[in-house]
Amino acid sequence: MFTGIGSIDFRKQFKTEDDCLKYLVDIKWGNGYKCIKCGHNEYYKGRQWFYRRCRLCRYDQSVTAGTLFHKCKLGLLRAFEMAFRICVRKKGMSTCELGKELGCQQKSAWLFKAKLQEAMKSSEQHQLQGKVEIDEFMVGGFEQEAPGRTHGEKSLVVLAVERVIDKKGNENLGRAYARVIDDASAESLKTIFEKHIAKEAEAKTDGWRGYMPLKKEWNINQELSNKGERFKLLHTHIMNIKGWLRGIHHKCSSERLQNYLNEYDFRFNRRGFMDTILHNLIGKSMNMQPIPYSKLKVCELNT
């Protein structure tokens, strides 16, 4: 397992395509082989060293078959390098930067980064616990004469964060999840509660009426925000997300915004485990089915 956040350590371990293939072989078959066609667990040597041929159905399987790395046109060495840079850099990298530094076209960098963002989605298995704060914000800012939660052409996002006590006894943020929503109705807001907030959590929101119907299922305390004064940590997190989108990517289409929020959450929620974050992402990518370009290209390319 690769551990570390330094580029020197990374390049010591991954010098060639074969180094990457060996790493994937250990992840995929390190605990035993299982044919993806028939489920049999015995194999022969395949056509190449990183293949396994099933003894029962004779299906010859590559280590990248049925994974996010299937038919990776960038090459595995570039793909690993891209995953590494997106993971360990605090603010990630735009596809324009990745294309220049890795010597590939921006469109190629965009395509593989979009696949990695799919792997960065939350498993929704670890809900927020304890004290949780929730609020909405708009990406792009308010439009003139757009009152209340009206967002016009802007994207509306709901954010939930944990408040925890760190080792020094200071209150800080734990994990956080952000989701794009159509509007600020109770039905739309309910999604983040169902997927990311435990029923026993002490949820705190502002006085928006959209949260009132949710009190039947969740423990929600409402109080006036006072222009964010009572939600300082949460609003700091909101400003960090907006600053990241403006500073690194400059713009983001509404269709792709959730993917970028997934990327941000993935890094933020693993900030205490940065030495294994690359291994985590590669492992998640190995457990995902290949994603064709047609499913990713839902909008014009934005970095």
What does this structure look like?
This protein has 303 residues and is α/β, with parallel strands linked by helices. It is 37% helix and 16% strand. The strands form two sheets. It has a five-stranded mixed beta sheet with strand order 6-5-4-7-8, with helices on both faces. It has a three-stranded antiparallel beta sheet with strand order 1-2-3, with no helix packed on it. The radius of gyration is 22 Å and the shape is elongated.
Largest sheet: 5 strands, mixed
SS class: alpha/beta
| Backbone CA Rg | 22 Å
Number of strands: 8
Order of helices and strands: HHEEEHHHEEEHEEHHHH
Which outline best applies? elongated
- Helicity range: 25-40%
Number of separate helices? 10
Low-confidence stretches: 299-303
Distance between the termini: 31 Å
Average pLDDT figure = 91
Q: Could you tell me the strand content as a percent range? A: 15-25%
Q: Give me the side-by-side strand order of the main sheet.
A: 6-5-4-7-8
Task: Kindly summarize this structure in a few lines.
By secondary structure, this protein is α/β, with parallel strands linked by helices. Helices cover 37% and strands 16% of the residues.
Q: What labels would you give this structure?
A:
10 helices, 303 residues, single chain, 3-stranded antiparallel beta sheet, alpha/beta, 5-stranded mixed beta sheet
